[in-house]
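Notebook B, p. 112. Complex prediction, attempt 2.
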Amino acid sequence: MATISDVAKLSGLSKTTVSRVINNHPYVSDKKRERVLKAMKELGYIPNPSARRLRGQLTTTIGVIVPRIVNPFFAHLVNSIEQAAYKKGYQMLIGQSYEDKEKELAFLNLLKTKQVDGIIMTSTENDWDIIESYNEYGPIILCNDYINQEVAPMIRLDQTKGAYLGANHLIERGHQKIAYCTGGLFDEQGKGKDRNQGFQKALSEAGIKINPKWIFIDQHTIEDGKHVLRQILEMEDRPTAIFTGSDEVAGGIIIEAKEHGLLIPNGLAVIGFDDQPIAEILDPKLTTIRQPVDLMGERSIEVMVELLVNPEMEIRNYELPIELIVRKST
Amino acid sequence: MATISDVAKLSGLSKTTVSRVINNHPYVSDKKRERVLKAMKELGYIPNPSARRLRGQLTTTIGVIVPRIVNPFFAHLVNSIEQAAYKKGYQMLIGQSYEDKEKELAFLNLLKTKQVDGIIMTSTENDWDIIESYNEYGPIILCNDYINQEVAPMIRLDQTKGAYLGANHLIERGHQKIAYCTGGLFDEQGKGKDRNQGFQKALSEAGIKINPKWIFIDQHTIEDGKHVLRQILEMEDRPTAIFTGSDEVAGGIIIEAKEHGLLIPNGLAVIGFDDQPIAEILDPKLTTIRQPVDLMGERSIEVMVELLVNPEMEIRNYELPIELIVRKST
DNA sequence: TAATTATATGAAAATGATTTCATGTTCTTG
DNA sequence: CAAGAACATGAAATCATTTTCATATAATTA
């Protein structure tokens, strides 16, 4: 690989001048700039990022933590982040936390060692106190997941409203016996908590009591959804509708219902969350709450880049619209 | 951040000795090693990767190129690669080529600038002549996609056999009028070509002629599949079965068939490729050809790590098993 | 016991960039 | 036209590490 010295030698100028051209510093005459550019092209010169980093320059790499990339919601989110990053000349380093605290910390360490300029977290496993300690090494922003304090920029949705819209829709369809199925645990913080609140608000406004037997926690996959449906079938007093925290779980419920001859939506109305491609594939098609994934990715990169340019930037929340998509499963 | 000099100062030893401890060089006395380790722990010292890279050390980062991460097949592949890489202490840098030659080259440049130790390509957009020119900067291995020369290690499946199995299955079910739907173009190299051959072999063995009107090329998404079905419905002479290059396209066909009241498999038998989660979700469940994604990811990392340790390693192919999964769509 | 050889350690060079400082030229401005 | 400001250039320092070279001591061998 050609180095800056090679370029300097070939162009008959100093490394300093070459460096100035690379970083388009103003004080370079047009003639010499031309000579440098010509030499650079001739040698196929690319500045060595390790050397630039060592001098405290930016890495033009942004880290993204996701729980698991095979979850289509996160695949889409990662996709939109990567697209936006590429447009701005950034690379994307991906890490899967697999809901493991250690893995999350291992990834945050990349910030400490300046391998990434900043990190976008789409989920958080550790407490914020711990994550915060990495913040001094570079910006951390939360996208999708969030916590209820204004400590870092957050790209978030009004989850409370989303859950409220969904629950309300079920109530309007005449349901009184509504089950609830969440990805998190019940006393959690952030996203899950807000959804719980929205759900509860809708029900209490309609004067409906929540039956604790109809609450399912820690449900994530299609398999989990199937299992939930089997549990419901065994109940004496069954719910007539179920609100789920993800399209995948909703999908599992619908697939298993078909297996057991339970009709959707007449036997059980099902509502999902995310509006993933699967929502259109299921039969019946899934009523769900759409999260504007592309917007979230784009906005995250925008905020990250601003923050890298101006680290003193004001920390605030960016709330994006959330929307109910009514299809055939309710 | 603490530097190696800080550790040297605190431990009262030289940078050299500290470096020796970090890289566990043999010639360090146990006593001093202890002192260094203690100082390192006390300062929370982590070596600066940029500086190490600059000195020509490995980056412990492996680049992975995928066409698009939202394609569940590639999401799973990336997942298995990341898992395997993490276990061996490597990070994974992802780039989406979006089937764009420029983007692919931009990513290959990371090798040139030593930002990654090696690159795993799960698809290739540029000709091998061009890709090969990056090979001198670090190992490139092909996983999933491949070319028909032994120029780089390839983790591949016997695609010819896969397509043969699928086509044969349709023929055994009594079909004579079989359509073919591929992701690539028709005269392509590598994966697509082998599949074409397998398909053709099965048909010619059964004495069946291929109807060129029933060949669909460049089909990738669910939407593409829907479109294919509409085209079939408009034909006077319709096929009774269709072989597709991906579960997603097959899914689109099945969904659209339902929309038009065409029964699967009686009106049209459909066979997919990949055995993605969607295959189990579709109604009827999809007959498909399973690719051992987890194995492919694992093997790729194994080979990559070996190759990094011993760059002179013999180049060879690693062929993994491929399998027909019969469900309800045929 | 003298001569190798293996073990231990550190000073200084090297890696490839950017930044600081010094110096010289050209342009404004009073 | 003198003096200060703006422009243009390069030598050398700097970033955090590894590697080379030099040197000293301990262990082995002849």
